[in-house]
Design goal:
Length: 158
């Protein structure tokens, strides 16, 4: 069965777990690479416990179990895996990606990395757990990057 690749489906699977988008695109070696890298960073940063404590509202515990030297790698790997799989899916679908497609992903990686860095400064009674600080960083970065992309695309059309 030769199924057409849907870029949005690839994007969503890659958001769920880095490497899955590459697998859907039939880039098995890249997919295995991103899955392995995600596992390596996740285990060394102790992200699963960070996520667990964050969802339980235990910010201090989430901060204390996290290895921030490893955690700072995660946003860039995560956002690059999403971008790479999405771009590949767009190309496989025979579409053009458009100018500055990487900007929302790059800005999401930058803002989330900064959020990871500052998330360990939070102590009680600050209410936003560190996992959510990083997610907020991604959202802010993607929105700013999307806005910059639109601005640059408009400027290029003049």
């Amino acid at each position: 069965m030769n199924r057409k690749v849907n870029p949005i489906e690839v994007l969503l699977w890659s958001i769920a777990f880095p490497g899955f988008g590459q697998i859907i695109n039939k880039n098995y070696i890249r997919g295995a690479f991103f899955i392995g890298l995600e596992f390596l960073i996740n285990v060394n940063a102790n992200l699963n416990m960070n996520i667990l404590y964050s969802f339980q509202g235990k910010s201090v515990q989430a901060i204390s179990v996290t290895n921030y030297e490893w955690a700072m790698f995660y946003p860039c790997v995560y956002m690059f895996a999403i971008y790479e799989s999405y771009l590949g899916a767009i190309e496989k679908a025979g579409e053009l990606p458009g100018d500055y497609l990487s900007l929302p992903f790059v800005c999401g990686a930058y803002f989330s990395t900064v959020a990871v860095i500052v998330s360990n400064l939070r102590t009680e009674p600050f209410v936003i757990p560190p996992t959510f600080v990083a997610i907020i960083g991604i959202v802010i970065g993607v929105v700013i990057g999307g806005g910059l992309r639109q601005l640059l695309r408009r400027k290029g059309m003049q």
